[in-house]
Amino acid sequence: MVLVTVLLTICLLVFLNVPIAIAIALSSLFYLIVEGIPLSIVPQQMYQIIDSFPFLAFPMFMLVGSLMNAGGMSRRIFNFAESIVGHLRGGLAHVNVVASLIFSGMSGSAISDAGGLGQIEIEAMKERGYDADFAVAITAASSTIGPIVPPSVPVIIYAMAFDASVGRLFLGGFIPGILMTVALMIMIYVYSRKKDYPISPFPSFRKVFENLYRCALPMLTPVVLLGGMFTGVFTPTEAAVVAVLWSLFIGFVVHGELELGDIPRLFLEVFVRMGVVLFLLAAVGVFTWILTREQVPDYLLSFITTARISPPLFLLMANIILLLMGMVTTVTPSIILLAPIFYPLIGNLGIDPVHFGVVVILNLMIGNLTPPVGPVLFVVSTIGKVSFHRAFKATLPFILPLLVVLLLITYFPSIVLLIPNLFMP
Q: Is residue 375 part of a domain?
């Protein structure tokens, strides 16, 4: 009964716009006091959940995204993407998607993508005659590619929570990320024909080569990281440090657009974001202990076994839960909250944690495009100076191709596992 009260209290506080970390912390504290449990359990569980070596990569990859944005990478990537797909009907919308795919190999964050490339993309589309709603919708939808293609910030959190291989998860996102890109581009083509958007002339080979040359080193980031991991030069966690050093080298030495005065501001931004994440993780650590004490995972496992729920049916149920979860909270808290419930279930049902991880992250990213929270949509609508309601209405058609890809990777695990099984069996 006390646990039910705790869950209802969390829902009520979140509904009242109380930050989810504070809602979980207050509700957990209420449980401990009512049950007469010594509060010394709090620091123990808070420390235990963040005492993870792979978690060290989290702030590093966040910093990489900031450094790439500040170092002028966004503009160079946009120009290169325009030179290869800008001649298609609805050209700049295709550029938007392809640039997001390329940039995702450096930032690994939807917010970094939306905040960095987003402003360039939306302004360019509006200048070329595209309506603001369409520009915002494409930018929001394409930014979901970032957390799927390596390196990915949410993957670090998932790997820590589900005890999964970071390297295999990184590799597992390649094909789904490409499928998302293709699906969105097909939708753009259909939409652009209907709206009769213009076609740009095919660029010269020289222009394509020049734009490729200007962004070649940033585009090598995932190659450097994955190559180092596969050859054993460094671990996935150490790869994040290498990515930071690589970003500093490109920003300061190669392009010279990064200045020393930018570094304190960028570090401060990452420190603030990390403070929020760490507080959330600490609060969820106590809440996870409560769920375990109340044997919630065991009850669910018993129910799944007794009801003879098959893996396909479980995946359908998980998709619905994750989509709903993504609508009310951001990716990191969702993964941490659901880990103690889903982790034993997927093990019992024989579902590969790498396959499930990509499904989880894509679900939550789609949810992040929808009200009431919709953090990615909020950022993009603010940049595009479009109301949240208008932005969501315009984005709805482009959520459909993302859902199609979600269904494909859910029920055809080989799409996710093909590359990991080839390179990291």
A: yes
